[in-house]
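2024-03-11 09:14:02 DEBUG pipeline.ingest accepted 1 chain
2024-03-11 09:14:02 DEBUG pipeline.ingest length=183
2024-03-11 09:14:03 DEBUG pipeline.predict start
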Amino acid sequence: MTNVLIYYTLSGEPSASLLVRAASLCTNRPPEQISIRRESGRKPVFLSPFPLYASVSHSGGVWAAAFSDVLPVGLDLQKTVSVRRMDGILTRYFHPAEREAVLAASPEARDAAFCRMWSRKEAAAKLSGRGIDGGFSSFDASASPTEVFGETLFIRDFALPGLLELAAAAVFPAEFEITLIPF
């Protein structure tokens, strides 16, 4: 099972500390048993004696982490905002099918559609280990499953309407469980 845990960062707690707390909840282990280091791509790696993969994102005061005990996972979270210069961003970073999907949304829903598609792309890019400069417009994240840099990925998005768009990507058809944990 892949768990997506969303934390509200009202306390201003550092991301590393939040990641330990979230991993503790996900694994039912005390925080003292969880050790983390960052890979070169800033992806967290758990040093504790149990398999756990994670991806972290934050936007608009909300911090989120996705965990899997099977295979790596990618996660992105976007606060739903009014997007300036949308046409330029769509042209530079989005696949033609993604641009079409965003522009097909009604004018009042277009910003949310843009943020949703961006979070899908970022989740896929994080899972692949490439950033937005590594061929970001070359793949179509509007479908699932989809081919991303030669690998089949499954992407699922979730929304807190009018507030947040969240997407998670995995190399297997994961069942995602979302847990909201305010503090």
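2024-03-11 09:14:41 DEBUG pipeline.report The chain has one domain: 2-181.
2024-03-11 09:14:41 DEBUG pipeline.predict end
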